[in-house]
Each structure stands twice: as C-alpha cells, then as structure tokens.
Amino acid sequence: MKVLANDGISKSSIKALEKGGFEVITTKVAQEQVANFINTHDVKVLLVRSATKVRKDIIDACPGLKIIGRGGVGMDNIDVAYAREKGLHVINTPASSSESVAELVFAHLFTGVRFLHDANRNMPLEGDTNFDGLKKAYANGIELRGKTLGIIGFGRIGQAVAKMALGLGMKVIAADKYVHEAVIRVDFYNGQFINVEIITEPLEEVIKHADFITLHVPAQDSYVIGKEELQLMKDNVGIINCARGGVIDEVALIEALDEDKVLFAGLDVFENEPTPEIRILMHPKISLTPHIGAATLEAQDRIGTELAEQIISLLKNS
Questions:
Q1: Across-strand partners of 251?
Q2: Percent of the chain at pLDDT above 90?
Q3: Domain D-isomer specific 2-hydroxyacid dehydrogenase NAD-binding: where (predicted)?
Q4: Is the peptide bond before 274 cis (omega within 30 degrees of 0)?
C-alpha cells in the first residue's frame, strides 16, 4: 500500500512504515494536483501537516483513499466530519508536539522580556557605532520568575506550558471551557517531581490578572483576544500566540502595542498565512517565527512514529 506524505515526514517514520509493508512517497504535490496524484498512484493513506488542505473535493474525488493523517494537533485543514461520513479514518497526533510548542512559547517570552528580537535586528546595524545607546535601550528587562502566566486553553499544550512556567517559579492561572481542573506533574532530572493542582477560571479573570498571556486554543469563528479583552489586561502585558492565526485581532494588537498597553507580543501564527501583514512583520515590539511550533526533530520523530503505528494498526488489522 502507498502512503503520500505530502508535507514531509521524519526518516524514522518512513522506516517504521516501510517495515510495516508500506511504500512511502514524499514528493511534494501541489494542492490542485493532490487528488489526481492519489488516484494515479493508487495512494491509500494521505499524510499532511498544516500546508495541504483536505476538503470535500479531494475526499469525493479519491474513492480509494482509506486514511487521512494529520501530523500534529489541529485538524482545521481537513473536513474531518465529512471524511468520516464517507468511511475514511481520520487520525492525528495530539500528544506528540506539546513539549516543542511549549518551549517555543518560552523562547518568545524570554525574547520579549529581554528585547532579543529587537536587539538582534539592531546590533548588526549599530552595535559598533551605538553600543552604549543600545545598552541603555535594552536595559529595562523583566524576570519571568514570580510573575503570573495566564494560559488560555488548558489542553495538552497548555498544560505543557504550565509545567515549564512552574519550573521557572511562575504563578499559573488558566481558562478553558472544557477543562475545569488539572494536576500538573513537574518532573525533575533526578526522578523527583511535584504535583500542582490548577483550577481553571473564567477567561475575564485570567485576562485581568496575568502579567503574560499565552493562547492554546483551536481555530475559532471569532477573536478570543480583541480590543475589549486587550483593554481589560494589565499595562505592559506580554502576549504569545503559538496556537492558530485568527484568534487575536492583529489590528487591535498593533494599536495596543503602539499605545504601550502591551509590552511585547510573540507570534508564531498569523491571520494571513503564508503572507502576514507587513505591519506585523516590521513591528519592533513583536517577536516572530513562521509557524514552527511543532518543528523540532524530536517532535517530528514522535509525530511520524505515532502516525505510523496508527496506520499499521488500522490497515493491517482490518
């Protein structure tokens, strides 16, 4: 059986699939050619990440397709319900990338509180002529220890972020419509651990009391953070979005940054991907990455291996 990994796949997962008797195709097929490629090559399994969209047209056009797999958590690029109605298996890997996304959140947090995003732009330009001026400009850093981190969305990734925050000595508060409480186990290198119980609060309370806010929610029909929510926040709040584009009103965010309401933002996702707004890309108070939350070698290995195990189980045992 043939597997098309259209958005890439790790070497370890290719080995696992080949050992299970599958042929893995890693050719990158253009979106409009996906259905034709699947039918021409008799592909049974289509694996995607966030780039390839699997909508009704592809599902209807590919009667031989048996499995659609998403390497990662969110499946908003797949018409999941429709695919399942048509008898296809739709699988994902919700636990595989949590740690990687959580570490990127803290990369943006550390960057923001120490102005690294701006310093790394300006040091190459002015470091040799305006060293003392830059030193003064970036002298008012903030420690994360002792501050309150508000986590909006307290699923696997939100809880992974909470572990790291607790390890840093931060207070953690969280909001989630579906998760009412969670016990966060913080493990240490020597086998010791502590358990911390966190009871979620209303969104408004988290927004009001957090020094820093990070979002971990799926794609939404409307903004989670808009102008009203920004006004409720503390002055000099830091905001991180490594979840989905469109959950923060970017126009309102820029206004809040320009008015010094928001100290900095860290964005891995954008309303208009893959062409984010120039005002976002050029803003001196925004730390930027190009949707790479799950893009670590370790996460991609876990994602690929987990997908391979699910595929082998579904097709070999059916």
A1: none
A2: 90
A3: 107-293
A4: yes
Answer for the pair 5, 28: CB distance below 8 angstroms, yes or no: no
Are 110 and 87 spatial neighbours (Cβ–Cβ below 8 Å)?
Answer: no
Q: Is residue 318 predicted with pLDDT exceeding 70?
A: no
Taking residue 76's Cβ as centre, other Cβ atoms within 10 Å add up to: 14
Told to judge if 209 belongs to the known catalytic residues of this protein, a careful annotator would answer: no
Q: What is the per-residue pLDDT for 183?
A: 98
Residue pair 167/186 in contact by the 8 Å Cβ criterion: yes
pLDDT of residue 95: 85
CA distance 90 to 9: 17
Q: What is the pLDDT of residue 158?
A: 98
Tell whether the torsion through CA atoms of 286, 292, 296 and 299 is positive or negative: positive
Give first-to-last CA distance, the chain, whole Å: 14
Q: Point out the catalytic residue in the list 108, 117, 244, 283.
A: 244
Q: 49 catalytic, yes or no?
A: no
Q: Is 260 left (phi over 0), alpha (psi -120 to 50) or beta?
A: left
Say yes or no to pLDDT of 316 above 80. no
Maximum distance among all alpha carbons in the chain? 69
Using CA atoms, how far apart are residues 48 and 51, in angstroms rounded to an integer? Answer: 7
Q: How confident is the model at residue 10 (pLDDT cuts 50, 70, 90)?
A: confident
| Distance of alpha carbon 55 from alpha carbon 33, whole angstroms | 13
**Catalytic entry in 103, 273, 277, 309:** 273
CA–CA gap between residue 194 and residue 279 (Å, rounded): 43
Question: Residue 41: which residues within 8 A CB-CB, separation 6 or more?
Answer: 2, 4, 25
In one-letter notation, the amino acid at residue 261 is K
Tell me how far apart the alpha carbons of residues 213 and 149 are, in angstroms, rounded to a whole number.
Answer: 6
205 is catalytic: no
- Please identify which of the residues 117, 283, 291, 302 carries the catalytic annotation: 291
Token pair 């330009």: residue = 125
